[in-house]
TrEMBL record:
<dbReference type="Pfam" id="PF00766">
    <property type="entry name" value="ETF_alpha"/>
</dbReference>
<dbReference type="InterPro" id="IPR029035">
    <property type="entry name" value="DHS-like_NAD/FAD-binding_dom"/>
</dbReference>
<feature type="binding site">
    <location>
        <begin position="260"/>
        <end position="264"/>
    </location>
    <ligand>
        <name>FAD</name>
    </ligand>
</feature>
<dbReference type="GO" id="GO:0009055">
    <property type="term" value="F:electron transfer activity"/>
</dbReference>
<dbReference type="InterPro" id="IPR014730">
    <property type="entry name" value="ETF_a/b_N"/>
</dbReference>
<feature type="binding site">
    <location>
        <begin position="246"/>
        <end position="247"/>
    </location>
    <ligand>
        <name>FAD</name>
    </ligand>
</feature>
<dbReference type="InterPro" id="IPR033947">
    <property type="entry name" value="ETF_alpha_N"/>
</dbReference>
<keyword id="KW-0274">FAD</keyword>
<feature type="domain" description="Electron transfer flavoprotein alpha/beta-subunit N-terminal">
    <location>
        <begin position="5"/>
        <end position="192"/>
    </location>
</feature>
<dbReference type="InterPro" id="IPR014731">
    <property type="entry name" value="ETF_asu_C"/>
</dbReference>
<keyword id="KW-0285">Flavoprotein</keyword>
<feature type="binding site">
    <location>
        <begin position="277"/>
        <end position="284"/>
    </location>
    <ligand>
        <name>FAD</name>
    </ligand>
</feature>
<protein>
    <submittedName>
        <fullName>Electron transfer flavoprotein FAD-binding domain protein</fullName>
    </submittedName>
</protein>
<dbReference type="InterPro" id="IPR001308">
    <property type="entry name" value="ETF_a/FixB"/>
</dbReference>
<dbReference type="Pfam" id="PF01012">
    <property type="entry name" value="ETF"/>
</dbReference>
<feature type="binding site">
    <location>
        <position position="221"/>
    </location>
    <ligand>
        <name>FAD</name>
    </ligand>
</feature>
<dbReference type="GO" id="GO:0033539">
    <property type="term" value="P:fatty acid beta-oxidation using acyl-CoA dehydrogenase"/>
</dbReference>
Amino acid sequence: MANGICVFAENYNGNIEPVVAELVSAAHFIKKTTGEKIQAVVAARDCEQLAAQLEQSGVDEIYAVKTDRDCTFQDDALSQVLAEMIKRIDPASVLVPATPMGRSVFSRVAARLGCGLTADCTELLVDKREDGSFYIKQNKPSFGENVFVTIVTKEGCYPQMMTVRPGVYTPYEAAPDAEVKVEYFDDIVLPESKIEIVEALPASSDTDSILAAEVVVVGGRGAESEENFELLKRFAGKLEAAIGGTRPLADTGMIPFEHQIGQTGFTIRPRICISLGVSGAIQHTEGIKDTKLFVAVNEDENAPIFNVSDYGIIGDMKEVLQRYLEL
Ligand SMILES: Cc1cc2nc3c(=O)[nH]c(=O)nc-3n(C[C@H](O)[C@H](O)[C@H](O)COP(=O)(O)OP(=O)(O)OC[C@H]3O[C@@H](n4cnc5c(N)ncnc54)[C@H](O)[C@@H]3O)c2cc1C
């Protein structure tokens, strides 16, 4: 009988990726109801070093395969190893970061295992069937991000496999020196890959800057005019803040999608967030609810954004920013 919540320990350059700690949080949320063990799977040339990092991450069991070469980007070969590992571990669920690597490798793993793969979940909930078995409600935006759907893996089909969007869960803070079981599958060998890595270049996306920023200035439709957006950029520059926005700003291309905040965008946890010309729709405020200090500027005193802000300024953002910038 399938049992366990398995997390894919994505790694790069000898380090476990930070998103794995977020998935461990999601796994602990599931564990509270199902009581299952949390497992991590890792396959890499430097897997002893990675296993040592995972021992401090809050998982109960680590399953590892040491490969004879670096297999980063060799998704065809890596997916064969991971599929074999998951077959042996037989977990009830597998949580994968919704990153380019997670998506590419685990679509292949799912095909090998003949199970489904729900992509891009933003919320995982647990429910119980009449026979007492648990299942995961995999919530995610769908149909061009216009509706929120719940996907449930067919009864009796295991593992329930899903990718989870980075930034949704708060990274898990593990207790030090917890006892963790580590098992190596020495007989699983990395097969030949048809992919040859010619050159690796750092990603040009600056998503990280908004996820890691201490201060974020968020623009809404009220900042959509060229003049207002220019003021917003100068304001953000003065505060050395990252710029985020609501969906209308991403739709019009004023900000890249990677800077859209909300249910179908990214979740940010800055120290300070200042929002300008944002109405405060729930689909947006879900992405900023963990901000420590939240200031909102809106000309409409009844705007819902004031219900979630710590401080509010009722006024035209243009006037407010011009005064601040002393124009
Ligand atoms: C399934 C689904 C998922 C969604 N996901 C997201 C998401 O991830 N992120 C997201 O942001 N939205 C999302 N949305 C859209 C969301 O519902 C709202 O439509 C959107 O957040 C509104 O953006 P806004 O506040 O910029 O615009 P508006 O709602 O049009 O508000 C503009 C605000 O600016 C104020 N204003 C105008 N001019 C000025 C000025 N000069 N000075 C000060 N204030 C001014 C107005 O009073 C108004 O309150 C989603 C919707 C759906 C259905």
